[in-house]
Amino acid sequence: MNEIEKFKKECEANIELQGKNASLKKVTNEFLKESIDSRYSYNFKWMGRPIIQYPQDIVIMQELIWDIKPDLIIETGIAHGGSLIFYASILELIGKGEILGIDIDIREHNKKEIIAHPMAKRIKMIQGSAIDPAIVQQVKDHAKGKKTVMVLFDSNHTHDHVLEELKAYAELTTVGSYCVVFDTVVEDLPKGVYDDRPWDVGSNPKTAVFEFLKTNHNFVIDKSIDNKILISVAPDGYLKRIK
């Protein structure tokens, strides 16, 4: 075994041990709950745009994109556009690919900043509900002919909406690539944390993931990612397409 393979095996062993470390997981879960109350994830930017993600999820998404080298990334939910800029910047380093963002309300001031950004050349946006059949068809048409596709969900976080997104778009994920469902963490938080939103314990992205996987066996939850990053808004949300 060469040194590169040796280090890889050491990391895999570390990750497996982390997944079994109850005290470490307890501490990271406590941090996550406290940090959500303080709006911790709202404080970060990527290349000048608010990204509203946890650093751990940012790093693992970089790893996945670099390894998969997708021709197309589809993301529902745009907000300030930081995630679009982030994914586009990794694609720019790879030297290929584009990100297609869908949002029911692309606010004009955010749209203006995204269009003016140096990474805009790898970004396309569609305004409308991600589960509108006309929008779904538009996205599917755009994905035709793309060899490698990743799909990401980060818009309306209710059970029904995310389940409809999964039914509409998960199939566009290519084998070996990932469909990532963000904010599955809602199910693990105390009830009422998001008292101003329509999602809560019992109706959220994680409940939608579990419902989806009951009948779709093309995907598995990649628990090694959860064990690796520990702090994430997407526990049980990194779905790898295996067939």
Any overview of this molecule?
Helix 4 (82-94) links the parallel strand 3 (72-76) and strand 4 (98-103). The two termini are 30 Å apart. With 243 residues, this protein is an alpha/beta fold. The radius of gyration is 18 Å and the shape is globular. It has a 7-stranded mixed β-sheet with strand order 5-4-3-6-7-9-8, with helices on both faces. The protein has a single domain, classed as 3-Layer(aba) Sandwich (Rossmann fold), CATH 3.40.50. The chain is built from 9 helices and 9 strands.
SS summary, helix count: 9
Helix and strand string, N-terminal first? HHEEHEHEHEHEHEHEHE
Estimated helix fraction? 40-55%
As a whole number of angstroms, the C-alpha radius of gyration is 18 Å
Widest sheet, order of strands: 5-4-3-6-7-9-8
Q: What CATH first level would be assigned?
A: Alpha Beta
* Largest sheet data: 7 strands, mixed
User: What is the total tally of β strands?
Assistant: 9
Averaging pLDDT over every residue, what do you get?
A: 96
Number of domains: 1
Poorly predicted segments: none
Specify the CATH homologous superfamily: Vaccinia Virus protein VP39
Estimated share of beta-strand residues: 5-15%
CATH architecture: 3-Layer(aba) Sandwich
- Overall 3D shape: globular
Oligomeric status of the shown chains? single chain
What structural category characterises the helix and strand content?
alpha/beta
Q: Which fold name corresponds to the CATH topology?
A: Rossmann fold
